[in-house]
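Supplementary Text 2. Reproducibility record for the structural model of the 286-residue chain.

All settings were left at their defaults, and a single model was retained for analysis rather than an ensemble. We include the record here because the model underlies the residue-level annotations in Supplementary Table 4.
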Amino acid sequence: MTELKPVTEANTAQAVKAKPAMPDAQTVTEVKHYTDRLFSFKMTRPASMRFRSGEFVMIGLMGDPHPETGKQKPLLRAYSIASPSWDEELEFYSIKVPDGPLTSKLQHIKVGDDVILRPKPVGTLVHDALLPGKRIWFFATGTGFAPFASLLREPQTYEDYDEIIITHTCREAGELTYGADLIEGLKSDELLNEVIGDGFWKKIKYYPTTTREESPKMGRITDLMRSGEAFEDLGVPPLNAETDRAMICGNLAFNLELKDMFEEYGLQEGANSDPKHYVVEKAFLD
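Retained model, structure tokens:
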């Protein structure tokens, strides 16, 4: 973990040996592959870029040359920023799609490669879009964990809430590795323990589940909530508008199902301009 300090030209210039060849390009500084479907990577951050933890940006690569004109167009996609707002680098967590226009290329990036970044962050998964509460829930499927990787390392999360519950539902156990490693790493992060408070991570309740491969907890989080099993396991009551706030980042069907459930609990959807009880990241499709 890097030091909590303002981003400067000196911070970002260390990994940049030459001027980017592409407009808005940043340099890859780290790549990690978790499964044959998932990987993460880090890249330099423009000194002028500011964002709120939980937001997303457009990133991508140049497409193949046009067969007739030879011209190339950028292939861009919305990616949640997995690093917190104070970090010197930008981190992203991505799926690999063999025939995907962008991810079929992006999965092969290496340290030193350039990635296009359009540094205009937006998004709904931010603290400003929620009313004050006692407990916050982060609901994720697959790479939808990314914005919560940012928020779990954001000091404001622990200032605003007494309890943080993160649920992560994936098909296979290996797909939980990124999130599990990040949460485990918080325990030994000396900087965050000093800045937020020693043992801040004890506020987190992590609830990973799988739907295909056998694991300690099987099932879709929505089913486990309906049966009451999830609340019993976590030792908390069902969501209610007085105490609970929530953020959702998953596939479309998951988002819609949770939205319907939240309405049943009496929670209302919020926005940056109208804070309420829960928010959904509409830009994400797992």
